Amino acid sequence: MTHSIDVVIAGGGVMGNATAWELSRRGVDVLIVDRQQPGRATSASAGGLWPIGEAVGLGCGVIYQATRSGKDSTDAVPEMLPEVFRDFLVESNSRFPELAGTLQDRTGLDIELGDGPGLLFLMNSVQQQAVVDNIARGLPDGFILELLSTTDVAELEPAVTTDIVGGALLPGEFQVNPMMLAEAFKRAALAEGARLQHDELVSAIHRSGDRVTGVTLGEDRIDCGTVVNAAGAWAGRLAATAGIELPIEPIRGQVVLTEALPPLISTCISTSSCYLVQKHHGEVLIGSTTENAGFDSSVTEVGIRDLCRGAVTTVPVLTDICIKRMWAGLRPGTPDELPVLGPVSGLEGYANATGGFRTGIVAAPLMARVVAQSVVGETTDVAIEPYLAGRFGG
Ligand SMILES: Cc1cc2nc3c(=O)[nH]c(=O)nc-3n(C[C@H](O)[C@H](O)[C@H](O)COP(=O)(O)OP(=O)(O)OC[C@H]3O[C@@H](n4cnc5c(N)ncnc54)[C@H](O)[C@@H]3O)c2cc1C
Questions:
Q1: Does the structure show a pLDDT above 60 at 115?
Q2: Within this chain, do residues 350 and 236 fall inside the same structural domain, yes or no?
Q3: Cys-Cys with 275: which of 57, 98, 270, 315 at CB 3.0–4.6 Å?
């Protein structure tokens, strides 16, 4: 059977749902198609909103660098993302307070936008301290990174070890509930008239010459004006069905969640071996490995042990508490750690909405807007060029 629709969005994680909302509120007829694959990233995420932290490498990025360099995590030094993307993340993050209110009004859902002192990076070595000093000096006016002594850290976070050389606080960088965010985007899109085909796989994207014409769903073929590829870590595989090169690779992140605890930490704590965030209901989320393990989304003894070791070293009282759950998710990773958005040169009727990697939650509001704007031909809020797939060549 053949059907026709304006836009088919392949993937119903935070990116697919946010893009569906942005398109449907512009009057576009949208169908979201989602098959929940083991390891889908949004529901595995920590929900950290750490725009500067991630951009300067003091969030999950420092763990990524430690893994990539193979160094002892106490010596790992952060690496910066390009300034243009730092500004993108800051802009996207600034939209959360208004977004939370809008989504609550339209869907009744609370995305649990937290409000705490910020992201606190703990420095384990003088080498890390020197790098962080440099980062602080290099930040432009208006970006705040407060350097804290060990005593300052102890006052702010009494549960944290004093066996550190200091801390760096990024005020205003906090957290959200990523599942509620994705669900709220989805419900807001459905309220605007979008449709959802749940538990269905887009098995192929159809192409006729330099035009994408539709998708295959089970036995059905759906013709459409545009296919938006929001298939997360699977986006490269899906693009390949239409001969489109998209270098997305799954980067596994393992996570440990403790039992619910009384208030223990007030900041999102980041170190080069793990990060810790206390969630809305009191559980402490300990994340996260950054591994190339293909599409294997299982947890490993080594991964969980390393995270637990990092957590109890950082917050010693965690030694005596119980683990409630552990899981792993697959980040849609890109070679340069930047997202992949918008059209592909020389091909009509196709747009990428993927590559959120380790910042796909904080970046989602702006990523989705930019993709939707490019699909309907509006001027994009920020330049899309740094995020086009064409930057990879091919
Ligand atoms: C452990 C971990 C911690 C993280 N922490 C943070 C954080 O603190 N802050 C932050 O900003 N980011 C974080 N991230 C990154 C962020 O979660 C991701 O970048 C983001 O969720 C990606 O969203 P997505 O919609 O692109 O992909 P997904 O959420 O994976 O959604 C893709 C969806 O498409 C479906 N799908 C795949 N192929 C098909 C197909 N062919 N047809 C139909 N459906 C398909 C999948 O099953 C899935 O439901 C973290 C990620 C992980 C794994």
A1: yes
A2: yes
A3: 270
